[in-house]
Amino acid sequence: HSTFRTSTQFHRTSTLFHSTFRTSTQFHSTFRTSTQFHRTSTQFHSTFRTPTEFHSTFRTSTEFHSTF
Predict the structure, then answer these.
(1) Which of 36, 38, 39, 57 is nearest to 48 (CA)?
(2) Which 3 state secondary structure label does DSSP give 66?
(3) pTM of this prediction?
(4) Distance between alpha carbon 66 and the CA centroid of its chain, in Å?
(5) For residues 19 and 15, what is the distance between their CA atoms, to the nearest angstrom?
(6) What's the rounded mean pLDDT across residues 34-51?
(7) Would you place residue 7 in the very low, low, confident or very high pLDDT band (cuts 50, 70, 90)?
(8) Which residue, 3, 13, 27, 44, has fewest beta-carbon neighbours within 10 Å?
């Protein structure tokens, strides 16, 4: 019974996967976007190496909101 349950769970996951990424093309375009996001995120982190540096740039959220 536990094997059957696992199999059902796998099938659900598989179905969900296929509905999320209908085609491999769509998957690749999503992957590209994800990679781009990762690059941007890395660039962001290299810009603000430490949280301290980040906080010194925008000392308080109030200061940030008053700017924008």
Answers:
(1) 57
(2) helix
(3) 0.20
(4) 29
(5) 6
(6) 63
(7) confident
(8) 3
CA distance to 10, 54, 68, per residue, from 48 (Å): 41, 5, 20
Tokens 């603000």: give the residue: 48
What per-residue string of b and e applies to 6-40 under the rule 16 or more CB within 10 Å gives b? eeeeeeeeeeeeeeeeeeeeeeeeeeeeeeeeeee
* pLDDT for residue 50 is more than 60: no
Q: What tokens does 55 get? A: 């906080």
Task: Tokens 């200061």: give the residue.
Answer: 63
Phi, psi of 5 (to 5 degrees): -60, -45
